[in-house]
Every structure is written in C-alpha cells, then in structure tokens.
Request: fold
Amino acid sequence: MIPFVKAHACGNDFLILEEPLAQRRHADLARKLCARNTSIGADGIEFLERRANGEFFLRLFNADGSEAELSGNGTRCVAAWLAQSEGLEHVALGTHGGVRTCQVRRAEAPHYLIESEMGVPRVMPRSIELPGVGVVPGAMVNVGNPHFVLLVQSDDFSAHGLPWQQLGAIISTSPLFPHGTNVEFVRIQSPTEIAFRIYERGCGPTTSSGTGTCASSTAAIALHGAARELTAVAEGGAQHVVWPADDAVMRLTGPAEIICRGETYGL
Reply:
C-alpha cells in the first residue's frame, strides 16, 4: 500500500507521495493514480524526497505521466502539507525549475495562505504560425517552466476563431515547442487585475496554475502596461502577484487546502 495526501490550490489538485520510490515507475504511477474515474484523481503527483542534508526536493509528474520542471500550485500544496504535518511555516523546496521558498501567511488547518518566491521571470514577444489557424501573436515566458501567453479580448477567452481549450491543445503540442508548452489566454480587466484561462502541458485545461498565474502576470506587466502588483483571476479563484522590477524575484500568494490522507494500491 502507498500512503498519499491529496491537496488543491484553487481547484488545481495534486497527490503528494513521499520518496524513496526509486524502484517504482513514477510515470506509470502518475497515470494510474491521477485517473479521475478509476482512481483517486488529480492533475499531477508531487513526489517529495527528504534528502540526507535535511533539504526537500520535489519531482512533478503530470496526469499523463510526463515529468515537468515544477508546479507553483503543487509546490504550495506541499508547503501546506508540511505546515500541517510538521509545523513548518517557512520551507525551501527544490525542484527541477529551481528552489522555491514558501512562507505560510495564514494557517487555519486544513486551509493555508502561502506566499512563494517564484524566481525571476523571463519574457520575450513571439508570434507563431499554426497550420489551419494562421499567425498567433503572443509571448514566451519562462518561470522555471515554459509558457506561451496570448492576450485576448473575448469574454469567453476564445481566440482566432477557436475556443481557448481547442487552441490551447494545438499550441501546447505544436512541433514549434519540442518539449511542449503551457498556454495561457489573458484578458486585462484593469491595470491591477487580469483574468486568464490555462491549458496545462501534460494535463489539459485546469482551474488554476501557479506558474501560469506568474507567466500571465509577467506578460501583462512587461508587455501590456499592467501594474507590478496585481490580482490574477482564474476559474478556480484569485491569486496575488508582486513583481517589483524586471530583474527581481516574483512573489505569488494564494491558498492551498489539504483534502484528505489515505492509502492506495500500487501498480
């Protein structure tokens, strides 16, 4: 039996499994346990490793079994679990996208409000050409993992004559991005608020994304004149972003909730 914790951040849900699982097939386990109708169900699994020097390291596997560099919301869920289980209010979590430091700002178990340091974003305007769609202007943003961000005007976030979910799938798996990309559709509501939708690489449409929030905010601030402190609203709720300067670390504050603990069969 495998013990697990399930948590979510604005509906973006994760299983947390403790390493060592070196002999297990992480990708297969993710595909099995994340299945919505035949297993526990989640957008991905955060494998938590406690290293000999006392440091923590996370490996993120998406629901389709692919491994990603990191998840902002998943990292926050792990920080919430460590706050609940071990009383840690400040924790540094290593990922393949860099170290993410999390600080608990409010704790009313099982609900937590956590501020995370998300690294220094990198942004570059880019237009891509897609068969059957045409030229799609946007921006490449890296916040430890890759994103393509589009600015949209429509209330339903559609673009180029397609629903955002359909266009997101086309862009995410395009050969233009050999390793795939996350895709965000951003509408600027005011200088201090954006709304957006997320097509997540390896998962599909999600209600929220921590790195997607940061990527959307980065594009809005750097390329479209939004304020450096803003609220970013996805389907699952709002998160708060502060980016003091282009060369400064971006900070993301949002909720995380522990849903349950349990045990499940392996492969």
Notes: Residues 2-116+255-264 form a domain with the Diaminopimelate Epimerase; Chain A, domain 1 fold (CATH 3.10.310.10). Helices lie at 26-33, 72-86, 164-172, 210-224. The mean pLDDT is 96. The chain has two domains: 2-116+255-264, 122-248.
